[in-house]
Amino acid sequence: MHCPFCGHDDTQVKDSRPTDDGSAIRRRRFCGGCSQRFTTIERVQLRDLTVVKSDGRRVPFDRDKLARSVRIALRKRPVNDERIERIVNGIVRQLEASGESDIASKLIGEMVMETLKEVDAVAYVRFASVYRNFREAKDFEAFLGELSEPT
């Protein structure tokens, strides 16, 4: 593991422990080159996922991008970081368990929306406004009308 501070290629693991939900290993590392400490997180990856965009482009799945999107939707909402991590882990596990290596971006967006709908209504509307590309107030009105209809 290269040191993120000085680039030294030999760092030592000082401590390893599982994350709270057991889905990853958190390692504290020490660089012998610059004496800095840093943390790495290792996760199991069942398969390489590829996202198929609506325009047909194919890009590697980026877990951090998914996490960032969920965090933005949940910004300033009463949802702690552990819950956000569980949400992201759950979505990634569902994607990996699907058995498919190529995942439509639309499917990922729908999975995030369904999850946010259960967690926080404001975050759900925030995410939907970007995901569904709301351009005017009437788009919000129509969406909120659908949301308030009994299912």
What does this structure look like?
The chain has 151 residues and is α+β, with helices and mostly antiparallel strands. The protein folds into 2 domains: 32 residues; 103 residues. Helix content is 44%, strand content 21%. The chain is built from 5 helices and 6 strands. Strands 1-2-3 form a 3-stranded antiparallel β-sheet, with no helix packed on it. It has a 3-stranded mixed β-sheet with strand order 5-4-6. A hairpin with a 5-residue loop joins strand 1 and strand 2. Helix 1 packs across helix 4. The protein is elongated. It starts with 10 loop residues before the first strand and ends with a helix. The model has no long low-confidence stretch (mean pLDDT 86).
Strand order of the largest sheet: 1-2-3
**H/E series, N to C?**
EEEEEHHEHHH
Mind describing the biggest β-sheet? Answer: 3 strands, antiparallel
Low-confidence stretches: none
List how many beta strands DSSP finds. 6
User: Which structural category do the helix and sheet elements fall into?
Assistant: alpha+beta
Task: Measure the end-to-end span.
Answer: 51 Å
User: Strand portion, in percent?
Assistant: 15-25%
Helix content: 40-55%
Query: Treating each run of at least 4 consecutive H or I residues as one helix, how many helices?
Result: 5
User: Domains counted in the coordinates: how many?
Assistant: 2
- The radius of gyration over CA amounts to 19 Å
Principal-axis shape equals elongated
Mean pLDDT: 86
